[in-house]
Design goal:
The protein has 10 helices and 16 strands. The chain is of the alpha/beta class. The protein folds into 2 domains: 145 residues, NAD(P)-binding Rossmann-like Domain (Rossmann fold); 166 residues, Dihydrodipicolinate Reductase, domain 2 (2-Layer Sandwich), CATH 3.30.360.10. Helix 4 packs parallel to helix 5 and helix 8 packs across helix 10.
Length: 330
C-alpha cells in the first residue's frame, strides 16, 4: 500500500479532526508539513501532532517540497486562492466544503485542476458520518419502494466565533452544504427546481443567515428542508418517504419503518469514530491519484452540490425560484 506524504493548508479548528483521523492510518498517509499565517497555529500543529516542517504561506510550503497531496482546511473565503495556487504547482487536492459559495468560482477551480492534471476531491464527510450512506443502500435494496419525498430538519442553537461571524453566508454554507449533497446521494439524481428564503435571527451574532427554508424538486420528487441556528428546540432528522416504507436517518443510525415494524441499522462512524469520515474522503482521492479514475467525491461531482447552495442564495436574494437542468442552472 502506497504511503502518501500530506501537506496541511490551514491549521484551524477543523484541521484537528483531519489530523486525528489521519494519525490512525500511518500505512496510508503521513502528514509531513503544514502552513498557516498565524504562528500560534503553526506551534499548535507541531506540538500536538508532531508536524515539524511548518510555513507561513502556501508558496513557501510548495517551494520547500517533499509532499504530493494537499489537504485544504482554510476558512471558506480564502479557499479558492489556496486551491488555485496548489493546482498550478501540480499538487493533488482534498478540500473542505463548501468548495465555493459561487458556482462560477467552483467551475473555475475544477477547470484549473483539470488543466493542471491534478485530482480534486471535496470533504463531503456526511456521506459517511451521517446515515446518508446507509439510507442510499436501503433505497438501492428496494426496502422502501420508490422514493416519494424527503423531509429534512436541522434545528439547533449555534453561536459561532471568529471569522465565520463576519461572513455574508452562514448557516447554509456551514450545514446546508451537507444536506444538499445528501439529497443528491439519497435520490441518485439531480435537482430541477429550487426556492429558498433566509433570515438572520437577532438571537445569534452573525452577519450571514442563521435560518433557512428551502424547497427543492428532483424531477417530481419534493425535498423540504428547514435549517435553524436560532432554534431552542434541538432536532436533526432526515425522513425519506417511500411507497412501501419510511427511512428515519440520523447521525447514529438509520431506522427502517415498514409493515408495522422498525428495523434499526447502526452507523459505525459515531462518537470517537466519526472523524474516520475525514480519512475515507481523503482515501478516495488517494485511490484516484493512483488509478487516474475520478473519485465519487470529486470536484466535478461537487459542482452540483455547490449549484444547490448557489441557487439557494440567489433565490433568497431575488425572491424567485431557480430552475435547474441536470442539477445545474439553465
Amino acid at each position: 500500500m502506497t504511503v502518501h506524504k500530506i501537506a496541511l493548508v490551514g491549521a484551524g479548528n477543523i484541521s484537528r479532526t483531519h489530523l486525528t483521523s489521519y494519525a490512525k492510518h500511518p500505512d496510508r498517509v503521513e502528514v509531513v508539513t503544514a502552513c498557516d499565517p498565524l504562528p500560534e497555529r503553526r506551534d499548535w500543529v507541531r506540538d500536538t501532532f508532531g508536524v515539524t516542517r511548518t510555513y507561513e504561506s502556501v508558496g513557501q510550503m510548495i517551494e520547500a517540497g517533499g509532499w504530493d497531496v494537499a489537504v485544504v482546511c482554510t476558512p471558506s473565503h480564502v479557499r479558492t486562492s489556496a486551491v488555485l495556487e496548489l493546482a498550478a504547482a501540480g499538487k493533488h487536492i482534498f478540500v473542505e466544503k463548501p468548495l465555493s459559495f459561487d458556482l462560477a468560482d467552483a467551475r473555475a477551480i475544477v477547470d484549473a485542476c483539470a488543466a493542471a492534471g491534478v485530482q480534486l476531491a471535496v470533504n463531503q464527510n456526511f456521506r459517511d458520518s451521517y446515515a446518508i450512506g446507509l439510507g442510499r443502500e436501503l433505497i438501492d435494496q428496494g426496502e422502501i419502494g420508490d422514493v416519494l419525498a424527503i423531509s429534512q430538519q436541522e434545528l439547533t442553537f449555534r453561536q459561532d466565533k471568529g471569522w465565520r461571524l463576519s461572513q455574508e453566508h452562514h448557516a447554509l454554507s456551514v450545514m446546508g452544504i451537507h444536506w444538499f449533497d445528501g439529497f443528491r446521494v439519497l435520490l441518485g439524481r439531480e435537482a430541477t427546481w429550487l426556492s429558498a428564503r433566509t433570515f438572520s435571527s437577532p438571537a445569534v451574532d452573525s452577519a450571514g443567515e442563521t435560518d433557512a427554508s428551502v424547497q427543492i424538486f428532483f424531477g417530481d420528487t419534493p425535498v423540504t428542508y428547514l435549517q435553524s441556528f436560532s432554534s431552542r428546540v434541538e432536532r436533526t432528522e432526515t425522513l425519506v418517504f417511500g411507497t412501501t416504507g419510511t427511512l428515519q436517518l440520523g447521525y447514529a443510525e438509520a431506522h427502517l419503518h415498514r409493515d408495522g415494524e422498525t428495523k434499526t441499522l447502526p452507523n459505525p462512524l459515531v462518537g470517537p469514530e466519526r472523524s474516520e469520515a475525514m480519512f475515507l474522503g481523503l482515501d478516495r482521492l488517494l485511490t484516484a491519484v493512483e488509478t487516474g479514475v475520478e473519485p465519487a467525491n470529486s470536484g466535478r461531482d461537487n459542482l452540483r452540490t455547490v449549484a444547490l447552495l448557489d441557487a439557494a442564495y440567489r433565490s433568497a436574494d431575488t425572491g424567485a425560484p431557480i430552475e435547474l437542468k441536470d442539477g445545474l442552472p439553465w
